[in-house]
Design goal:
Elements lengths: L15 H12 L9 H23 L7 H13 L7 H12 L1 H4 L2
Helix pairs in contact: 1-2, 1-3, 2-3, 3-4
Length: about 100
């Protein structure tokens, strides 16, 4: 008889401050340009937006965006050189990175 054993390990979602530290470590390595204080402020704004989205989506029992989506958003925001909550570009980044599962249908 075949016996299947599974181990599930759930990781606690990092808070906004920890997400910023993760982004700093992830992006602040050669050959990338340095992760500046301005980038940290941008990452914090994205992390705070992510936290609000997680709360809303948890209430609706929808998939929660996580660290991967956060890093995608930070990468896009830095690459496009946007300002914190900078209008249409900011909204486009949020919609295509943090809420990407909704775009898939």
């Amino acid at each position: 008889a075949f016996l299947r054993r599974c181990i599930v390990h759930k990781l606690e979602h990092p808070g906004a401050e920890r997400l910023v530290r993760i982004a700093r470590l992830h992006f602040n390595r050669p050959p990338a340009r340095p992760f500046t204080d301005e980038h940290s402020m941008l990452a914090l704004a994205i992390a705070q937006r992510l936290e609000k989205l997680r709360e809303t989506r948890a209430e609706r029992r929808q998939r929660l965006p996580g660290t991967a989506e956060f890093l995608d958003a930070v990468r896009a925001a830095i690459s496009l050189n946007i300002e914190v909550e900078g209008g249409a570009t900011w909204d486009a980044i949020v919609n295509t990175t943090l809420l990407k599962d909704e775009m898939l249908g």
